[in-house]
């Protein structure tokens, strides 16, 4: 038996006009453990992934392969399907997570899915959310150095806590030096890397980093 992948990919079922990024993701992680929220199983299959687990009330899934583990949930529940996928990923030992098909559609679901990044962090896991134009992940405070990715021209820093203190940005078109950022007054979006690598330092507070392209 081959070595089990250490990466899990969680599929939501959000409508997306461009899913080409999923095929690229499959090329990178063909052996990832795949957990799907309901109709996310069909989306995964179209990108070449074979779901390992399907979770949900099965209200939108037409057919489930016989070799897939199914965890059926009642339609009335506290957690959304993708949150249950997150719990299952952690319970199976995965600590390196990618979330996809999770940022389109209903806004309440999309915002809740971004909060999953913080949920994974609090459970000692690394997670990021991807769609066709964006890559989003947590900054838990301290100093983070990032290599410039030519696929993403823009950088944004969005506070999760109401106040971030000691924010310093280096290697970006619009640097900051030890400033205070407050959530209602965000001045840290639409930035651009200007060096081969750049750094993001936060003395106190948590934020989301958003790498984007047009």
Describe this structure in words.
The chain has four helices and 13 strands. By secondary structure, it is α/β, with parallel strands linked by helices. It folds into two domains: 126 residues, Thiamin pyrophosphokinase, catalytic domain (Rossmann fold, 3-Layer(aba) Sandwich), CATH 3.40.50; 75 residues, Thiamin pyrophosphokinase, thiamin-binding domain (Jelly Rolls, Sandwich), CATH 2.60.120. The protein is elongated, with a radius of gyration of 18 Å. The mean pLDDT is 91.
Query: How do the strands line up in the largest sheet?
Result: 4-3-2-1-5-6-7-13-9
Number of domains: 2
How far apart the termini lie comes to 42 Å
What is the tally of beta strands? 13
Main beta sheet: strand number and arrangement?
9 strands, mixed
Counting DSSP H or I runs of 4 or more residues, the number of helices is 4
- Helix-strand sequence: EHEHEEHEHEEEEEEEE
* Secondary structure: helix percent: 10-25%
Overall 3D shape: elongated
Kindly report the average pLDDT value. 91
Strand content: 25-35%
CATH class of the largest domain: Alpha Beta
Alpha-beta classification: alpha/beta
Low-confidence stretches at least 5 residues in length (pLDDT < 50)? none
Radius of gyration (CA) equals 18 Å
Going by CATH, the architecture of the largest domain would be 3-Layer(aba) Sandwich
- CATH topology (level 3) name of the largest domain: Rossmann fold
According to CATH, the homologous superfamily of the largest domain is Thiamin pyrophosphokinase, catalytic domain
């Amino acid at each position: 038996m081959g070595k089990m992948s250490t990466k899990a990919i969680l599929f939501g079922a959000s409508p997306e006009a461009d899913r080409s990024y999923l095929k690229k993701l499959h090329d990178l992680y063909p052996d990832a453990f795949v957990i799907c929220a309901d109709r996310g199983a069909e989306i995964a299959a179209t990108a070449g992934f074979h779901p390992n687990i399907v979770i949900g009330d099965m209200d939108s899934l037409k057919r489930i392969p016989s070799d897939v583990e199914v965890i059926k949930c009642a339609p009335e529940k506290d957690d959304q399907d993708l949150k249950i996928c997150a719990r299952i990923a952690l319970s199976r030992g995965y600590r390196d997570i990618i979330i996809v098909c999770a940022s389109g559609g209903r806004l309440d679901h999309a915002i809740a899915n971004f909060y999953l990044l913080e949920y994974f962090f609090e459970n000692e896991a690394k997670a990021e959310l991807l769609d066709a134009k964006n890559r989003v992940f947590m900054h838990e405070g301290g100093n983070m150095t990032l290599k410039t990715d030519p696929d993403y021209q823009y950088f944004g820093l969005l506070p999760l806590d109401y106040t971030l203190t000691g924010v310093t940005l280096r290697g970006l078109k619009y640097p900051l030096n030890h400033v205070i950022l407050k959530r209602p007054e965000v001045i840290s979006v639409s930035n651009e890397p200007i060096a081969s690598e750049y750094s993001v330092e936060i003395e106190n507070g948590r934020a989301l980093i958003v790498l984007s392209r047009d």
